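for ur thesis appendix - Streptomycin 6-kinase. copy paste whatever u need, i formatted it the way the template wanted (i think)
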Amino acid sequence: MMNQSPVETALNRALIRWSLTKATPVAETPHAWLFRVEQNGRNFAALKISKPAASLEEGRGARLLQWYEGLGAATVFDIHGDTVFMEWLSGGTLGEPVRAGRDDEGTIAIASVVSGLHRQRPDAPDDLEPLRDRFQTLFDTDVRAWPHTARDLYARSAGIALKLFDRPSAVVPLHGDLHHDNILSSDRGWLAIDPKGLIGDPAYETANVFLNPARGLDIAADPRRINTRADILADRLGYPRKRILGWAAAHAALSACWDLEAGNAITAQLACLPNLLSAYDLA
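the 3d part is after this line
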């Protein structure tokens, strides 16, 4: 017991606090550890334990997930410190049917999830990150960090982002990282997990969809798919189509800036951005 790691200590405390048994490690991400546990020897549940370096953002996301009260998202039963006790979702991700060619079905499911997340509720968490702050990396990036042939893509996308921020919209709590592989199947339908905990323009919520799913770049970069996705989302959510596409392009550039900062390739963003900007121009 004396040589327990911090995660083992947090796990044991959680098992005692919520009378849980049989903790099985499921995943470790850069931000957290995830365990499947048993309640009453019958029902599965999940424990998510944040890593210290990520506890601020993970805490914001957990409190937002709790605020959703299971509408469009996994249900949070309780939070204590850096540990979240929540619903276990046993199904696959929405990325699976989309990679199998059912993209329209996937986009309709995303619209349904967003409708649940954006339903009006009182008493939103008060520590959500403003969307404008989230985009600071885009505005701070030196254009010379981008490949020479892509600098016009950066400049246009940053300009679109500034224009969007200059034209006020409604302000709502945002999941902030909504994409196919953050939406899981359950007996209650498709449910979101792992929000970032932002606040801003509701039309931003679908931006990350246009770079995804993982291992589905041929879908995300296809101009026909981009336009059909925008049609479905605008029609079902009532957000302006041009604004949806503007945020998609701006987010793709922001994502590229994050990857450049981390020393990663930006192949996916460069495959999508020209077609997102063309769709935006024509919207």
